[in-house]
User: Which sequence fits this backbone?
């Protein structure tokens, strides 16, 4: 089956429209009050690999619902006038997510080129992520 628009085309569109920051540029933003690092990885990925210190966890499957203020799942962080730096494990999910966020009207978005894998490989700060216990 031929795809009408495959992942390569979607990534090319995202790359053309969304700013991608390398690890050096992204790590320079760490700790700033006007920047939110948004971790799109699954909780199990975060628990296994660790995370960017202070990052806001937003599993990729919830992004659109958490951004939209009309959604019953809206998260106030996305209504703040900040820069949103999205990241995932390797940079693909974050490129697509940043484009989606931008298309939805979220301003001042970018993503981490190479994702958390590049972040770790270049020795940028990493914090442990505690495993979530079973829900009561």
Assistant:
């Amino acid at each position: 089956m031929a795809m009408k628009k495959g992942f390569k085309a979607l990534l090319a569109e995202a790359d053309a429209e969304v700013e991608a920051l390398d690890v050096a540029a992204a790590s320079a933003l760490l700790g700033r009050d006007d920047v939110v690092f948004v971790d799109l990885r699954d909780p199990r990925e975060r628990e296994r690999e660790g995370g960017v210190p202070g990052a806001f966890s937003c599993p990729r499957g919830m992004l659109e619902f958490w951004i939209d203020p009309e959604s019953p799942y809206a998260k106030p962080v996305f209504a703040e006038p900040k820069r949103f730096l999205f990241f995932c494990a390797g940079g693909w999910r974050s490129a697509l997510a940043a484009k989606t966020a931008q298309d939805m009207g979220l301003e001042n978005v970018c993503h981490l080129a190479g994702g958390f894998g590049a972040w770790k490989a270049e020795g940028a700060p990493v914090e442990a992520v505690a495993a979530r216990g079973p829900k009561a």
